[in-house]
Amino acid sequence: MKEIKKLTNEVGAPVPDNENAITAGPRGPVVMQDVWLMEKMAHFNREVIPERRMHAKGWGAYGKLTVTQDISRYTKAKVLQKGKETELFLRFSTVAGERGAADCERDIRGVAVKFYTEEGNWDLVGNNTPTFFIRDVHNFSDLNRAVKRDPRTGRRSAQNNWDFWTLLPECFHQITVVMSDRGIPASFRNMHFFGEHTFSLYNAQNERVWCKFHFKTQQGIKNFSNEEAGKVNGMDREFHGKDLFDAIEQGDFPKWTMYIQVMTEEQAKNHYENPFDITKIWRQKEFPLIEVGVLELNRNPENYFAEVEQSAFTPAHVVPGIGFSPDKFLQGRLFSYGDAQRYRLGVNHNHIPVNRAKCEVNEYHRDGLMRTDGNYGGAPAYSPNSAGYWTAQPEVAEPPLDNEGAVWRYDPKDDPTDDCFRAGGDLWRVLTEDKKQILIDNTAGDIAPCTENIKYRHAAHCFLADPEYGERFAKAAGLDFEKVKALSKLSNKELIEATL
Ligand code: HEM
User: Fold this and answer.
1) C-alpha of residue 170 to centroid of ligand 1, in Å
2) Model pTM?
3) Is domain 1-47 annotated with CATH 4.10.91.20?
4) CA distance 362 to 383
5) What are the pLDDT digits (tens) for 403-440?
């Protein structure tokens, strides 16, 4: 016979009845003395925690990174040494939708990976696109307000979305990617993902190179058209979550090949555009992909809330051999994630099992809400101390970084090497004819609810990227192409004034 497990209250005492409230008489009111009922209702009222401000809807799985190639000339990180296998947790997400949003929306997909390395956790918090919309931290909260709900109507607004995107020409390459066939992946398994930013690697001799991380799907790229996605969302709003879960349950473990691109400090100084600008591509012809290993997902979480919802990633978590770069967008992220998680999950969120490092953690942080371990017992609470406790390790310090120039608010648009349309134009030129048509149709459909001034602003950007791109979009959006050409001759400032 099946063993029946016993119900207890929150401190382990047996519960006599879980169906009938204690009442004063058979038809009388409930009494305060039904403490189990009070506990049950009070706990239920507190079960919802704040959702992530963006990337709220997501799915996760465990897996491993296996390094198959020797890249020790670039990095001393133990996680990246040939032959190393490291356990990881990965969370996929959409960006704009809330926790209850449908999976198959046109959006970029977040891909956050936590590598539990022997030198501490390394989090790579990336997306399924090689670049990002914007490049200054100031614009980030505004980007999210533009793509999320309108304050008046409470609805998503194409007008807000496209107004913001087109006022910042650096968004152009990312808009082109999102409006292309890749804007709605058929599954998480069928897309590449990227670290996007320029990071750094340094080797055992403390020699630094700049680097970008790429993960290419071994399942092949597959996407949904708007029509297919509409049907799928109508049938199953959790389609991508189910696809990932089912594949892993069936032992069909998805895999990605990991690559890096490397640029020396000298090359960076002489590069024809800012290599630390997240809206710019490092061309693979100039900086070829270097294979590193294989990332595999092979185990589903046991509990969605405990492991997926409570997971917390931050680009600030790096390990010796991997570092940051002067990318000012990355610098902003280094603050933002931990701050969000202290609010969303509490100051001790790194004690939650999915976030906890697998190696020893000795950081002198004490106390705080929900401290559930031994709080370091009687070990000294201050440093330096004479008890021999936890001293810093200077040998893991990053090599120093030369810097020059005055402290100032620099606008990248004032940099003569800045070209916001080169990458978008290059992408247009490599698309096959059918992909070009999909991009034009998706763009014209998405921007259709917007006012004409915004359509003209975008058309001028398309023209600047490639005249054919501009002409075809203008036609699809029903715009006067001669006017588009005239607008494209204006400076960015004049174009904005002409299209307000
Ligand atoms: C200055 C720019 C950015 C800021 C301030 C920012 C901030 C945030 C914040 C506060 C969260 C929620 C964190 C949480 O509650 O746990 C988040 C989530 C996320 N962000 Fe960003 N973000 C920025 C840019 C980016 C970029 C460029 C990428 C990709 C390269 C990215 C990828 C992600 C991902 C994947 C998540 C979800 C992580 C998860 O699955 O828990 N973000 N971001």
Assistant:
1) 19
2) 0.97
3) yes
4) 12
5) 999 999 999 999 999 999 999 999 999 999 999 999 99
